[in-house]
From TrEMBL, chain B:
Sorted UniProt keywords: Cytoplasm, Nucleus, tRNA processing
Name of the molecule in the record: Elongator complex protein 5
Classification via InterPro entries: Elp5, P-loop_NTPase
Acidic residues bias (residue ranges): 281-297
GO biological process, one term: tRNA wobble uridine modification
């Protein structure tokens, strides 16, 4: 189910993004509207927005489809999930979308003040050359391989993921966004402690906090004209919704406190309502949930299924994996739990399931976790399953079942 | 890191001391109270679990007019007509009122809760979390220290409370009798997380002596690199190279090293430079099977 396409003439965007290379406007007969900061998906024609992290866009099939929800299962100390939420909101500011931020723990204004600064004059980073280099450039590098020079131009293991277009932007994490840039974007805030609690006698499956949030969202969408069915008199824009730490105790929910929560279906009912709201409007939502506190795995599965895209972040900080030399280049593991199939039969899952992330200053990179070649002497003697970290490799090799069956000539 | 935490929990901080039946955290809590008193701060203790005498037991000689004990021990649930402090008074308004009543307006106040577990048995965890968050944000108290018995609650509850905390100290019994192991997790304002493990013991006057950093008991490789000996030593023939020999070796032209022009030509020729075109004629026995298939391996 996608956001219903609007029947309108394709309007050229009034202001071009600084990255368009030509002034060529494709004369398309598609009924999709053109909004700055979006592009149609090459797979199924959905309108996509960037999450702010180019590697994550690649994993999700090019970007986040308008009208869908991305669920991020928080890492233990909520550092990286919060970072991705900030990237998402910063991307909205740069693309001139409208923002809606809801939180119960921190004031949304504090979150908005921490947005990373965009690198506006930086060109997208080119990947190591897969195409042959020009002869004038190779003089220095040919000497680097004396004996194996025939392999000079073959790519090294292509570990970083990126799509080739300049759809997303890059951000410098060490600086915060200039207040002028941030104030240019329209932000709607929902801070639960400051929200008046209405006492209603009607019994609903949703907690008061969630129903207040849903009502606030509905009101903003309707008032600002994000409904798909709204009139076409003014130019359309996307609403980016960031919901921080739903399901935590500060939202009055005991999902993360008790093994058998009393408000068991509250968050799931909220997500159902949220998705219905998003499908009929031009908005995108990113929801973070502290899944490490939720003990009921079946409930976590329902929550995942009610969101369209779902990823989980597992940070190495504080776990025994921190000292594992296998993981020394990364900050944590990223698990893709779910990728949606919108208006098509099957979805595009990422090729590689072992993904790890690293937060660098100018990029949040998500890479394939690959083992370096093991050059120690014991490699040929010991069966695969006994190597340190062999668990990640054994499933790929398929030889983990019967351990000692190795050829010995 | 324990001494730094003792010297002053940062303003707006929430420190949780997690203990279990095996090792009590109350002594550490008393050390923290003592340290706060020595820093000329006002300390408000809400005691649910132990009586005032027992809590003041260790701190002799310290100025006690800055230590305000709120008696929640005798009647915490309000069964009598005039309870001193009940569990249901654990919310922001009542606590602020309590603190302002007995405290100097200019002194920094530390609120100590002994223990949070008691409150969690009678009040919902989300309400407790809300109050703790409000205490963190509001200006009534400078810092809050709470004792939590981790084995009394479900994992989610303990996790939710610790998720809010700026620092968590988990005490566990140590190897020797009077020692304990403290696992400390501290979150700084910038979002950085520091973790440490220390062995400490508490002396008679409630000062904390940190013995050492606990050694990691994880599996350690015995360091096979150190045991490798140099294979070129102790031989009857010479396997090493002198400098001149090394230079000569590097100058030697290898047989298939081409000139740069030829290399680039070969590299950029692309596909189709050499293909093997083979058409099997009638006499050839072109067997599609892999001859290795009958090996029984």
């Amino acid at each position: 189910m996608m956001a219903a396409p609007v029947e309108s003439v394709c309007k050229p965007s009034a202001e071009r993004s600084p990255f368009s290379a030509t002034s060529f406007q494709k004369k398309s007969r598609s009924k999709l509207i053109s909004i700055p900061g979006t592009r149609p998906s090459v797979q199924n024609g959905q309108l996509l927005v960037s999450t702010g992290v180019t590697s994550l866009d690649f994993l999700l099939g090019g970007g986040l489809a308008v009208g869908t929800v991305l669920l991020i299962e928080e890492d233990r100390y909520d550092s990286y999930s919060r970072m991705i939420l900030k990237y998402f909101l910063a991307e909205g500011v740069v693309c001139r979308h409208e923002l809606f931020v809801a939180a119960a723990q921190d004031n949304p204004d504090d979150i908005l003040q921490e947005l990373p600064a965009p690198i506006l004059d930086d060109v997208a980073i080119h990947k190591p050359a897969e195409q042959p280099r020009l002869p004038c450039e190779t003089h220095d590098s040919l000497d680097s391989m004396m004996i194996a020079w025939r392999y000079q131009n073959l790519p090294k293991v292509q570990s970083a993921l990126a799509s080739s277009s300049r759809f997303g932007h890059y951000y410098d994490v060490s600086k915060t966004m200039e207040p002028e840039i941030r104030q240019a974007a329209k932000c709607h805030r929902f801070y639960l402690p400051e929200h008046p609690t209405e006492s209603s006698t009607t019994r609903s499956p949703v907690l008061k906090s969630y129903s207040a949030l849903l009502r606030s969202l509905q009101e903003v969408i309707h008032r600002e004209g994000f409904d798909v069915a709204a009139s076409m008199s003014k130019s359309r824009n996307i609403l980016r919704i960031g919901l921080h730490s739903l399901g935590s105790a500060l939202w009055d929910d005991d999902l993360s406190c008790h093994d058998n929560p009393t408000h068991r279906h509250s968050l799931t009912a909220f997500l159902y309502g949220l998705r219905a709201l998003l499908r009929s409007s031009l908005s995108v939502a990113v929801v973070t949930v502290p899944s490490h506190l939720i003990q009921d795995r079946a409930l976590m599965g329902s929550i995942t299924r009610l969101c369209d895209n779902a990823i989980a972040l597992e940070s190495f900080k504080g776990s025994e994996r921190e000292t594992n030399p296998l993981y020394k280049d990364f900050h944590g593991l990223l698990h893709v739990r779910q990728v949606p199939h919108l208006n098509c039969l099957a979805n595009q899952l990422p090729d590689h399931k072992d993904l790890a992330f690293k937060l660098k200053r100018k990029q949040f990179s998500i890479e394939r976790l690959h083992l370096p070649p093991d050059l120690s002497e014991t490699v040929s003697r010991v069966s695969r399953g006994e190597l340190a970290g062999g668990a990640t490799v054994a499933s790929a090799c398929g030889s983990g079942t019967s351990g000692n069956k190795h050829l010995d000539f | 890191m324990l001494p730094e935490l003792l010297q002053g929990v940062d303003a707006g901080g929430l420190l949780i001391i997690q203990d279990s039946a095996g090792c009590s955290g109350r002594h550490l809590l008393k050390s923290f109270i003592n340290a706060a008193l020595n820093r000329e701060e006002a300390v408000h203790v809400i005691g649910f679990e132990v009586s005032e005498e027992e809590l003041r037991d260790g701190s002799q000689g310290s100025p006690t007019q800055r230590l305000h004990f709120h008696n929640a021990f005798s009647d915490p649930l309000g069964w009598t007509d005039h309870p001193a402090f009940t569990v249901h008074q654990f919310n922001l308004e009542e606590l602020t009122h309590l603190v302002k009543q007995t405290s100097h307006p200019k002194a920094a106040t530390t609120l100590v809760i002994d223990s949070l577990s008691w409150i969690l048995r009678h009040v919902s965890p989300s309400a407790v979390c809300k109050t703790l968050q409000q205490l963190k944000k509001g200006g009534a108290v400078r810092a809050t220290i709470g004792l939590l018995h981790a084995d009394m609650h479900q994992r989610g509850t303990v996790g939710s409370i610790c998720h809010l905390a700026t620092s968590v100290i988990t005490v566990a019994p140590g190897a020797k009798g009077d020692e304990a192991v403290a696992k400390i997790t501290k979150r700084s304002k910038s979002g950085k997380v520091i973790q440490e493990e220390e062995i400490f013991n508490i002396k008679e006057d409630l000062t904390v002596m940190v013995q050492s950093k606990a050694s990691h008991t994880g599996p350690k490789q015995p360091g096979p690199e150190e045991q490798e000996t140099d294979p070129t030593a102790n031989l009857t023939f010479n396997l090493r190279l002198s400098d001149t020999e090394r230079e000569a070796k590097e100058k030697l032209a290898l047989p298939f090293v081409f000139s740069k022009a030829k290399k680039t030509a070969l590299l950029h020729l692309g596909p189709g430079s050499g293909r093997i075109l083979y058409e099997p004629d009638a006499n050839d026995d072109y067997d599609q099977e892999d001859p290795d298939d009958d090996l029984d391996v």
